[in-house]
Design a protein that fits this description.
The complex is a heterotrimer of chains A (335), B (361) and C (74).
Chain A (H helix, E strand, L loop, with lengths): L13 H15 L9 E5 L2 E10 L5 E2 L2 E2 H14 L3 E13 L4 H18 L2 E10 L7 E11 L5 H4 L8 E4 L5 H10 L4 E2 L10 H10 L3 E6 L4 H13 L2 E5 L7 H10 L12 E5 L4 H9 L8 E7 L6 E4 L5 E3 L13
Parallel strand pairs in A: 5-6, 11-14
Antiparallel strand pairs in A: 1-2, 2-7, 3-4, 5-7, 8-12, 8-13, 10-12, 11-13, 14-15
Helix pairs in contact in A: 2-3, 6-9
Chain B lengths: L9 H14 L4 E5 L2 H9 L10 E5 L10 H11 L4 E5 L13 H6 L4 E3 L3 H10 L4 E6 L6 H13 L5 E5 L4 H10 L6 E5 H7 L5 H5 L4 E5 L3 H16 L5 E3 L11 H10 E8 L3 E10 L8 H4 L15 H5 L23 H4 L4 H8 L4
Parallel strand pairs in B: 1-2, 1-7, 3-4, 3-5, 5-6, 7-8, 8-9
Antiparallel strand pairs in B: 10-11
Helix pairs in contact in B: 1-10, 2-15, 6-11
Chain C lengths: L3 E10 L2 E6 L2 E6 L11 E5 L2 E5 L2 H13 L7
Antiparallel strand pairs in C: 1-2, 1-4, 2-3, 4-5
Classes of the chains: A alpha+beta (335), B alpha/beta (361), C alpha+beta (74).
C-alpha cells in the first residue's frame, strides 16, 4: 500500500505524531518522548539543540512575518527546555521571482528579533528553486544553547506531581486567527495580531526566581490541547482544566463561534504551558505577570491523580467533558 | 458576546439543572434532530447536568451524516474532470463514498475548494470562466434558502459556468418517518434554526397526530436545558404541544422572505437519506425554470451500486435505535481520522461527538 | 458548517452587510431579512442573515430564566 502524505500529517495532531514516530524517530534512533529541543550531554555540559521549518501562508500577517516567526520559534523551543538560547542558523529556500524587497524586510525582521532575544544568527544556507517548485519562501532555523545544571528535568517532566498548577502566559489562538485573517479567502477581517514573540527573557526571569518549574512546552500547532495531551502522556497523570480560566481574546472567541473552531486547538507563537509546583505557583504567576509578555498569565488547571490519561474540561457553563487529542486539518500552513 | 454569553451563565445553568432534576418524575427520552444541537449538547457537557432518568438521543440532524454515498460518488466523479472545480462546505470533503472521498481526490490533484457561503462559490465561478464550478448544496431548511439566493444571483449575473448538485433536504418527512418506524421517544427537541426559517408550525403534526412533545430550542446551554424542562413539564401534564423556547429567533410562521426564496427556486422531491433509504418529498431539487443550473441535468452521469461496510451501524444511529457505543467499529477501524461511516466524519455527527468527549468516561 | 451565530450589523452596502461577532467582521447577505439597521443583531449562517434577533424576546427569555424558582411544584 503506497499511502500518500496528506496535510493532516503536518498539522501537529495525532496523524502527524504517528508519521514522525514511525517514520523518523524510530529509524533515526531518536529518544522518546520527543521534546521541543534535544537535550544532549557531552563532556559535562548539557546542550539544547532544536530545528523548525516555517512555511506559513501568507508570509506577512498582522503582528509579524515568516522571518520573525523563524527566530522566535527556535528561541522559544530552546527556552522551554531551560536553555539560554545562543546561536541560530537560518536556511532559505526561495522561489524564483521572489521580490528582493520582501526578502530584505524579512531579513531585517530576523536581525531585529535576534538582537531583542540576545541570540546570534551565525550560519545559514540559501537555495533558489524554479518558479512553482516552492511557494514563495520557506525558512528553516536551528538553534542551540546551554542548559544550566538543575534545569535538565524541565523537558522531560520528571518532577511533575499531582497538585501542580498549569499556567499559560496569555490568551490563546491569536496567531492562527491573525494568519487566517490575512489569507483573505474566508471573508472576514479582524484586528487580531499574531502573538509571535521571543519568550526567553520572560522564561529566564521565572527560572531565576523559582526552582519549582516542573515542565514547560511551547504551544504551537495543535494548540493547547496538543500540549495537554503530551503532558498526560509524559506524566502518566490526569489533567483537570477550568474552561473559564483559559484566556481567549473576544474577537478570537467570536471567530471561533462562527468558524466552528475551538481555541484550544489553534496555533500560537508566543505562548507556553508551564507546570508549577503547588508551593510556588503563585510566585511564578506573579513573576510572569510582571513581564510584558506574561501580563495576562492565568492558572488554567492542575495535575491530578484521578482520570489518568485524560484531560477533563470543566466547561464554563457548569458541565464536564473530555478534551480530545487534536487530529486532522485544523488549519494548514499556519506557522 | 451578546446573545451568547448570557445563556451560558454558570449559576443560571446549575439552577436550571436543579429545577429539571426536581421536576422529572420517571424516565424520559427526547430526540434532537439537529447537528448543531448534537454538538452543543456534547460541547457544553449537558448530559453531565441532567439526571440519569432523562435520555437525550441524537437523530438524523447532521446534514453531512445523512448525505447518501451516491451523492459523494457523484461529486467525486465530477471532481475527476479536468474542467471542473468542486466547491463545498467544509465537512463534506472527508465523508467516505463507496471507494474514495473528496479529500482523497484532492490529494490526487482534483480541484476541490472549501467555502463558507454560496456567494463565495459564485466568486470562484466568476474568476474561473474556463472551468465549470459545481457547488455541493447540503443542509436543511436553514441553509437551502441561501443556496436559493445564490442560484437567483447566478441567474441575474448570467453565469453559465455555475452548477448546483443538490442534497438539500427538509426535516418534517424524516421526523414522521422516525415516528412511524416506532422510535421510542416522548418528544423532540426541535431544530431552532430550521424553525427560524420555516416557523414552528411545521412541527404541529407531531404533537397533534402522534402526541409527541415538541419544543423549538436555541443552541446555548440555557436554551437546551430550558427546552428539556419545558418538555418534561409537557409530558408530566400529558399535554404534548409545540412550544417555542427560542423566541428571540423563532415565530409561528417563520421568515417569509427566506421561504419565498426557497419556493421560487426549489421544489420538493424524493431524497435518499443514509440509514433510511428514500423518503418521499424530503428533498429539494431545482425547479424547471432553474434547470440550467442543475449539475445532473447539464452533465449527466451515473454511479454504480455501492456496498457499505456491513458492520457500520450509522443507519441505526441516525434513526436513534442505537448509540455510538453500540458500534463494534467505534474507536477501532472507525475514528475521526479514518471514518467508515458519516456519523464519524462530521463534527456534528453523533459518533464523532461521542468519540471526542466520552470515550474514556 | 451549519453554525448560526448572533452578529451585530455595523455597516450596510446594498444587499450586503458587515456584521461583527466580538470584533471579528464578516460579510452577510441581507436578501432574507428586511428593515435591518446598523446596531441590529442578526443570525449569521453560511454567509447570510437568516433572521433578525428580537431583543424584546431575548429579554423575556432571560428574565424567565432568572426568575425561575427552585422550589414549587410543577
Amino acid at each position: 500500500m503506497n499511502e500518500l502524505v496528506s496535510l493532516n500529517h503536518g498539522s501537529g495532531g495525532k496523524q502527524a505524531n504517528e508519521l514522525i514516530r514511525n517514520l523518523f524517530t524510530r529509524k533515526f534512533g531518536m529518544p522518546d518522548p520527543l521534546t521541543d529541543s534535544a537535550v544532549l550531554k557531552e563532556n559535562g555540559f548539557t546542550l539544547a539543540f532544536t530545528t523548525d521549518s516555517y512555511v506559513v501562508d501568507p508570509l506577512f500577517f498582522p503582528g509579524g512575518n515568516i522571518g520573525k516567526l523563524a527566530v522566535c520559534g527556535t528561541v522559544n523551543d530552546l527556552s522551554v527546555s531551560g536553555a539560554i538560547p545562543k546561536y541560530i542558523s537560518a536556511s532559505f529556500i526561495i522561489e524564483e521571482g521572489f521580490p528582493r524587497n520582501d526578502l530584505e524586510i524579512i531579513a531585517d525582521s530576523m536581525a531585529e528579533e535576534a538582537e531583542d532575544a540576545g541570540v546570534r544568527i551565525v550560519t545559514g544556507d540559501t537555495k533558489v528553486v524554479e518558479k512553482g517548485k516552492c511557494d514563495k519562501l520557506f525558512i528553516t532555523t536551528a538553534g542551540t544553547g546551554f542548559i544550566k545544571p538543575g534545569y535538565e528535568h524541565i523537558s522531560f517532566g520528571e518532577k511533575i506531581r499531582s497538585g501542580d498548577k498549569l499556567i499559560v502566559n496569555g490568551p490563546i489562538g491569536n496567531h492562527a486567527i491573525a494568519v487566517l485573517g490575512a489569507r483573505n479567502n474566508l471573508n472576514f477581517s479582524s484586528s487580531v495580531l499574531s502573538d509571535c514573540a521571543s519568550l526567553n527573557h520572560m522564561i529566564q526571569s521565572v527560572l531565576d526566581k523559582s526552582d519549582q518549574v516542573h515542565f514547560m512546552r511551547d504551544i504551537t500547532r495543535g494548540g493547547l490541547a496538543a500540549v495537554l495531551y503530551e503532558l498526560v502522556r509524559i506524566s502518566m497523570k490526569g489533567m483537570n482544566i477550568d474552561e473559564i480560566s483559559i484566556p481567549v481574546d473576544e474577537p478570537v472567541r467570536g471567530l471561533c463561534e462562527v468558524l466552528g473552531f475551538d481555541p484550544c486547538y489553534l496555533a500560537n507563537e508566543g505562548k507556553i504551558l508551564l507546570v508549577a509546583g503547588e508551593d510556588e505557583y503563585e510566585k511564578i504567576l506573579s513573576v510572569l505577570r510582571s513581564h510584558p509578555l506574561g501580563v495576562n498569565s492565568e492558572v488554567i488547571g492542575s495535575v491530578v491523580d484521578d482520570r489518568k490519561g485524560n484531560v477533563v474540561l470543566n466547561t464554563k457553563n457548569g458541565g464536564r467533558r473530555n478534551l480530545d487529542v487534536p487530529s486532522g486539518i485544523q488549519l494548514p500552513r499556519i506557522c | 458576546m451578546k446573545y451568547i454569553e448570557e445563556y451560558r451563565d454558570r449559576e443560571l445553568i446549575l439552577r436550571l439543572a436543579a429545577k429539571i432534576a426536581k421536576t422529572a418524575k420517571g424516565k424520559y427520552s427526547f430526540m434532537e434532530v439537529c447537528g448543531g444541537h448534537t454538538s452543543a449538547i456534547h460541547r457544553f457537557g449537558i448530559p453531565s447536568l441532567l439526571p440519569q432518568e432523562i435520555n437525550l438521543i441524537s437523530g438524523p440532524g447532521c446534514p453531512v451524516c445523512v448525505t447518501g454515498t451516491d451523492f459523494i460518488d457523484k461529486a467525486i466523479l465530477y471532481s475527476q474532470r479536468a474542467d471542473v472545480i468542486i466547491v463545498t462546505f467544509g465537512d463534506l470533503i472527508r465523508v467516505p463514498g463507496s471507494y474514495s472521498s473528496l479529500e482523497k481526490e484532492k490529494l490526487k490533484g482534483a480541484d476541490v475548494r472549501i467555502v463558507f457561503s454560496g456567494l463565495e462559490a459564485l466568486n470562484i465561478a466568476r474568476s474561473n470562466e474556463d472551468k465549470t464550478v459545481i457547488f455541493l448544496g447540503i443542509g436543511f431548511e436553514t441553509t437551502a434558502p441561501g443556496t436559493a439566493v445564490t442560484i437567483r444571483q447566478a441567474e441575474e449575473d448570467g453565469l453559465v459556468n455555475f452548477l448546483l448538485l443538490s442534497a438539500h433536504k427538509v426535516m418534517p418527512p424524516v421526523m414522521e418517518a422516525l415516528v412511524m418506524e416506532g422510535v421510542n421517544i416522548n418528544g423532540f427537541i426541535c431544530p431552532g434554526h430550521v424553525a427560524a426559517i420555516t416557523g414552528s408550525h411545521i412541527f404541529n403534526f407531531l404533537a397533534e397526530k402522534y402526541h409527541l412533545g415538541c419544543v423549538v430550542s436555541g443552541f446555548e446551554p440555557a436554551d437546551i436545558l430550558q427546552s428539556v424542562l419545558m418538555l418534561v413539564r409537557q409530558i408530566n401534564l400529558n399535554s404534548p404541544a409545540v412550544e417555542i423556547q427560542y423566541t428571540r429567533a423563532v415565530t409561528y410562521s417563520g421568515n417569509s422572505l427566506a421561504q419565498n426564496q426557497l419556493s421560487e427556486v426549489f421544489e420538493y422531491s424524493d431524497a435518499d437519506w443514509r440509514g433510511f433509504g428514500t423518503i418521499p418529498g424530503s428533498g429539494l431539487t431545482l425547479r424547471k425554470k432553474y434547470e440550467k443550473f442543475d449539475a445532473e441535468k447539464r452533465i449527466p452521469l451515473s454511479v454504480g451500486f455501492h456496498n457499505e461496510n456491513p458492520n457500520c451501524i450509522c443507519g441505526n444511529i441516525l434513526r436513534g435505535l442505537k448509540k455510538p457505543d453500540d458500534c463494534s467499529l467505534l474507536g477501532k477501524s472507525c475514528t475521526p481520522e479514518n471514518p467508515i461511516g458519516a456519523c464519524m466524519v462530521s463534527a456534528e455527527g453523533a459518533c464523532n461527538s461521542y468519540f471526542k468527549y466520552y470515550r474514556n468516561e | 458548517m451549519c453554525l448560526s451565530v448572533p452578529a451585530q450589523v455595523i455597516k450596510i452596502e446594498g444587499q450586503m452587510a458587515h456584521v461583527s461577532i466580538g470584533g471579528a467582521i464578516f460579510k452577510a447577505g441581507l436578501h432574507m431579512v428586511e428593515n435591518v439597521n446598523i446596531g441590529d443583531y442578526i443570525l449569521l449562517h453560511a454567509g447570510f442573515a437568516i433572521q433578525k434577533i428580537s431583543e424584546k424576546e431575548a429579554l423575556v427569555t432571560l428574565n424567565l430564566l432568572k426568575e425561575m424558582e427552585d422550589a414549587g411544584n410543577d
